[in-house]
Fold this sequence. Notes:
- The protein has helices at about 15-35, 55-70, 170-175, 180-185, 190-195, 210-215, 240-250, 305-325, 340-350; strands at about 1-5, 45-50, 75-80, 95, 105-110, 115-120, 125-130, 140-145, 145-150, 150-155, 160-165, 205, 230-235, 255-260, 295-300, 330-335, 360-365, 370.
- It is α/β, with parallel strands linked by helices.
- The strands form two sheets. Strands 1-2-3-6-8-11-12-13-14-15-16-17-18 form a 13-stranded mixed beta sheet.
Amino acid sequence: MNLEFDDSKRMHHGVTKQERDKILRRFIKCVDGKLALHKNVPLNRFSIKCKDDVGPAPVIGWITNVLKRRVSELALDISSCWDWPMSTAIDGCGTMVQEFWESCSVSSTSLKRLTLRFNQMFFENHKNVSFDTPNLLYLEYSDVIADKYPKANFDSLVEARLDLQMTHDQIHKAKFSEDDLIKHEGMVGNATVFFIGICNVKSLYLSDNTLEVLCFCCEPMPVFNNLIQLTVKTDRLVGWESLTALLKNSPNLETLVFEGLLHRYDMKCRSDECLCKPWEEEDIPTCLSSSPVKVLKIMKFGDIYEDEDMDKMMDQVEYFLETMPNLEHLIIHYETSIDEDVEEVLSQFQMVPREGLTECRIQVISENLDLSSN
């Protein structure tokens, strides 16, 4: 049996506080009632989306209830201004209790899929977050990073989608601090244990925020021996230093997907810490020259802020084609309705020399066209 609840369907602009309170009470009563009604029915999936603050007590009660029933898939999408001040651990086959804002612990042998989305103002880190989920296959995790990850047991994890963020203070220290220790070590937090815990995944999605966390809160970069597919969301304000390190430590990567193709340009772009095309007069080694990637997919190509962004995207793709020795298929999803632009992009990329490299099929897909080099 699957149970799914979404209070956002009832909440909308214009609802008075009195009406909102009534809706919340009815929502809590509805969830409690459904769980009680089906208390003897095996539960496969339990999903809660709380876009308005229902408070910690009901949510923790629901989680405890379904974990005791050995639910296979748990999805939480929670907005809250509470500090979640509960500290009592619940014994059983699975627990998810403790202080949600100060510390959070997920322990279950039955969970196969877990989605955690905590929509908060990112002013403070959790003190501790632990995962003891040895049979988990899928993890989606969106939150501010914790100060510590005492345990990160993901022995069976196959796929992870991560949107982890630093607090506002950590971002400021990482990018603008004059502290010599931070400048030297580059660390403003430590999520290394968590990333070591997930390093056996086969498929990984990283938001642009997570790329920053990897850069400033993970040392050393774990080796992802089993990683086959990597998807990264890029942003013009986020550098690619951590992405470069991750690619170096993913020896069996076959498919690389970019959501967007922009990044922060700074002095590190003139070193081997970045993937972008170096200045013409410089001969800088790149990890791309030993990349095992066979399929490169670029989403949101042409999604630009300034005219010069398009030139940067074109240069970047040409550099991929020039340097990635095992590339067999380049797929570009071009955000344009102008057919001539699609034809011109394909023609320009076809002219990039790949002497001594594998033959690469180039495919450009737009709203109206799907063109290919062969």
